[in-house]
Specification:
By secondary structure, the chain is mainly beta. Helices cover 11% and strands 44% of the residues. It has helices spanning 92-101, 172-176, 179-185, and strands spanning 29-32, 35-42, 45-50, 53-56, 63-69, 79-85, 109-117, 120-134, 143-158, 162-171, 195-196.
C-alpha cells in the first residue's frame, strides 16, 4: 500500500506537460514542442527520448539504460536518468520510501500521484530538497549533501513485461527544463487526471 509520512509536504504548484506518443508502438521520430524525440524499446518499455538526453553506458548491470540530462548554462553538473526492471516482484512501497529517504527530512517536499498513460497504470514521485548524493563507488555507500536538488521517479506497471522504474536526479534548475520530457518519455497522463497518494494508502 502507498502512504506518506506526515512530516512530508506536497509542492503547491502543479506540473504542466505535453504528451506525445507513437501510434501502434512503431519506432520513429516525433516533434514535441519543436524538439525532435525518438522512441526506443527498453525490454518492452517504450521510451520517447528527446535529443537533449544523451544516452550513456549504464553504470551498473542493474540499469537497463541511462541518460545524461544536460544542465542549463550556469549549472555545474548535468542530471542523470536511469531505467531499472526487477520483473513483477518489486516492492513499490519500499522503493518509494527508499527514494524519499535519499532526501533529508528538513525542508523536503514530496508529491506522489497515480495515473493511466499510454502504456498503462503508473505511480509518479516528485521529491525535492537536500539530496544525499552518492559520492564514489556504490559499495562505499558514501554521500554528500546536495541542496536544491530534485528527483523524479516513475513506476510503470506493465501487464506482460513487469514493473519498470524510471528515476532522474538533478538540481532543481536542471530538472525544471526536463520535467515535461520526463513525463512524456513514458507517456504520462495529464496531471489534472492523476490521483494523489500517500505511502500506506
Amino acid at each position: 500500500m502507498i502512504q506518506l509520512n506526515s512530516s512530508l509536504r506536497a509542492p503547491t504548484t502543479l506540473l504542466t506537460i505535453t504528451c506525445a506518443f507513437l501510434c501502434g508502438g512503431l519506432l520513429g521520430a516525433e516533434e514535441t514542442d519543436g524538439a525532435k524525440t525518438e522512441s526506443i524499446q527498453v525490454d518492452g518499455l517504450t521510451l520517447n527520448v528527446p535529443a537533449t538526453w544523451k544516452q550513456e553506458e549504464p553504470k551498473s548491470k542493474m540499469r537497463l539504460t541511462q541518460f545524461r540530462l544536460l544542465a542549463p548554462e550556469g549549472e555545474e553538473a548535468d542530471g542523470e536518468l536511469a531505467v531499472f526492471s526487477f520483473g513483477g516482484d518489486a516492492n513499490i512501497d519500499a522503493n518509494l520510501r527508499r527514494w524519499i529517504g535519499q532526501f533529508q527530512s528538513d525542508g523536503r517536499e514530496v508529491s506522489i500521484t497515480s495515473g493511466t498513460g499510454t502504456q498503462g497504470k503508473y505511480v509518479f514521485l516528485d521529491v525535492s530538497g537536500t539530496y544525499n548524493k552518492p559520492d564514489g563507488p556504490p559499495i562505499r555507500r558514501k554521500t554528500v549533501p546536495a541542496p536544491d536538488y530534485r528527483m523524479l521517479c516513475a513506476i510503470q506497471l506493465m501487464e506482460q513485461e513487469g514493473i519498470f522504474f524510471i528515476k532522474a536526479t538533478a538540481s532543481r534548475e536542471t530538472m525544471a527544463i526536463h520535467v515535461d520530457a520526463f513525463r512524456n518519455s513514458f507517456g504520462a497522463a495529464d496531471p489534472s487526471t492523476e490521483k494523489g497518494l500517500q505511502v500506506g494508502e
